[in-house]
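Reply to dn_fold:

You asked what the input looked like. This is it:
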Amino acid sequence: MFRKGNTANRLRWQKPLTVTVLLVLLIVGFSFFVTSWINRREEENAFQRLYEETGSLAREIESKARDDRRQLETIASILSEYEDLSSPQVKALLHSCSSIGMMTDLELLLPDNTVVSPNPQGTPDGTLSFEKEAALGAHITDREPDISGNDSYILRHYVPVIQNGETTAMLYGVINLDGLPDELMSNPYGGEAAVYIIDGNTGDFLVDTWHEQPGNIWDLGERPMAAGYDHNLLKQGLIDGKTGYVVFVSQTTGEYLYFYYKPLTINSWRIALSVPEDLVFADANIIRNILNIFLALEAVCFLLYFFWMLRYVCHETNEKQRQLDTINYIYDVEQLLFNAHEQRQNIDQALEKIARITSAQAIIFLITDPTENLFSFIQKPKNEEKGRGVSARIGEISSCLPAYFQKGDNLNSLCDLSSFRAAFPDIQTDPVKNMTAIPIQDSDGSVFGILAAFNLPDGGQAHTTLLKSVAFSFNMLCHNMRSYNAIREKGEKDVLSGLYNRNRYEQDLKKYPALCRNSLACIYVDVNGLHELNNEEGHDAGDRMLKAVAGQLVEQFGNQHSYRIGGDEFLAFAIDMTEDNVLGRTTRMEEALKEQNFHISAGIQWTAETASLNTDSLERLIKAAEQRMYLAKKAYYENKAHDRRKER
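and this is what came back:
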């Protein structure tokens, strides 16, 4: 019996032991296979990454060149308005527009081959040929020596200045090739890759971050190539503007360089990157070392595996349940916020759900939208004690959160109570014990919403992830609200003048009695001579007149309470402004328009009886202003100089 039992035990252990040994041998063999496979894959990935990095750099250079040309064309159109292109005003304009895009200086080449430059050490007269550059139109030169004497190379980006259908000058921006790599946002391989821009026609380097001085790629001679690569194919590929790659030995370091090249759409330029072999296989070496460590520790891992598995199963069961609860919570919040831009009560319900699952004493969500100022949604659990004191303190803290997150160092961070106290030492925080605030960011990095929890039972540590998990839903809410408001605004704005239209005017009328405390004035404006101007000079002239009137109305009375209520009728309200101030602003508006040869008739009705102001009395105020406008208009046309029947 003993031997039977012993044999049974031995047999029982032999099978797992045999399986374990076979598994270890299988893993060792598989590890060697994986290492070899990783080496091949990493080489393929190296070329793929070279392709992607080179393509990204090429797109950036081409994009910057297009942006530079657009900006040069804009400046050229401005210069075309000047009669004297060598005037100090032109030099001042060139100086103010320098250092844009990839360009460090702007200069102007005139037909007599003189150069207008804001820099006293600019290009000497007679160095450049206006006839040659003008014949090429808008273009970028190939590499040229910098004649300022600093032994470097530059490019010139030309665009013509057109006056009366003729090219009267060539505006160009100087691109310093030594500083060009610093202008690029792309940083291939974290800055460890060499960047080249090569002229395919001549082989000249425009940019070469590997050698100290940019020279000519063909002057460097033939490099020893890795097996399967040909120097002549590289040369022909660069000349023909093809895309390709080679592996050759660096004469500087003696190691293999992986070299990828492709054509640019600018002139006959080619962009190229080279990466050392050590960098290419860095990941493979790391993985190989990890595999060796894994093999050494494998025996220990198998012994610990069974004990870990039991604990893992229990932990995973609890974790899966927690994740399931979290998913349901995120889904519920997402569903509530889906159409919350139209049903604002859903936001309160979503905040109530968040407060319930986090056990927070208060949850707030701020929308920092300049068109809507600041909105606050606060949800407090029913069992909150001393609710009024907490609510007041939360309101003070919340009003400071947008300023906190607008600071550059805090933009991507959480805000806790200690960091808030350091930023705003004058704000009292008691009885708030802890706070966790998360910024909701737009695609450009600006903060347009803040989600915050106050007085979490665990101090905020365990529920920070829960708050972050619903941040995306609140982000979508902000986008939906912005789109919803933009669509609504299109129905309330006059396209031509940019002022609110009559629809918005009629909606806003009922709110004005509650807005003013001391006084309210109505300024009723009618444009004089619009019909005649349209008939004589066309509707474009009439549109300019209307835009000028709208601009002056906004300048004097702001755009929040200014409206275009008819074809040539405008109206503005001045809230809590003295009568003399209103009269003075209206006079300044009329005088400014007269300087543009535009005339208006304005009627003003001012009242200090705001306590009894209601919808009916507001209508009478507007009618009175309208009547005064008609009187002003009658007086205007009684003047023979303004007689609309007069022959023009």
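Confidence is low (pLDDT under 50) at residues 1-11, 644-648.
Hope that clears it up.
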